[in-house]
User: Fold this.
Amino acid sequence: MLTMFSRDAGIIRAVAKGTRRIHSKKAGHLEPFTRVSLMLARSHELWIVTQAVALDLFLPLREDLVLTAEAAYVLELIDRFSYEEGENRALYSLLVETLERLSRGDPVFPAVHFFELHMLDHIGFRPQLFNCVHCREEIQPRDQFFSAAQGGAVCPNCGGLVTDARPISMDALKYLRNFQRTAYTRLIQSVPSTKVEREVEVILQNYNTYLLERRLNTPQFLNEVRKNREA
Assistant:
């Protein structure tokens, strides 16, 4: 059983018969993180893969455990937030570009979270980062709050009025804004501190958890991989 994200039909779940056989011609074309051209046949309930040709293998994503974990996080976001059999070509292009960036060795933090913020744009959950979501006043250059339930930044005057508001530093808010409005080629020239990186990740994971009403699986795996790498 395969779960795939397609350019023209969104999430597709299909059966690839015989791929576990030693001499299967399809097995090497259906590895994780691989972009493929498929021929599918419709059965009563599921699609069946009749032919598969790999277009991009993205081999570095399977050769480095950190990259494997980061790519798995990207694909879990796609799986959780996308609809089955619903076209979204812009999101498909964004996904392919992100896997290419990770494969060629781009800095992981901007590559992954540029994807994350723009994915939220494409599916209608763009967080409001320039005006307080409670009073609508323009956000000033100082530490603020973030509300997942309200969908964005909350000014200090309103922080106590929004039940789920959690602190966010101005540096972290600045990076979230940059992901929304700055071209990727310029974004990768800026290197945040490790503290800011972790703060951004916690804010986004909390926001995703609220939207999905459940936690993602890959962040815990990613944290374990990082700890082992640092040990």
About this structure: The first helix runs from residue 60 to 63.
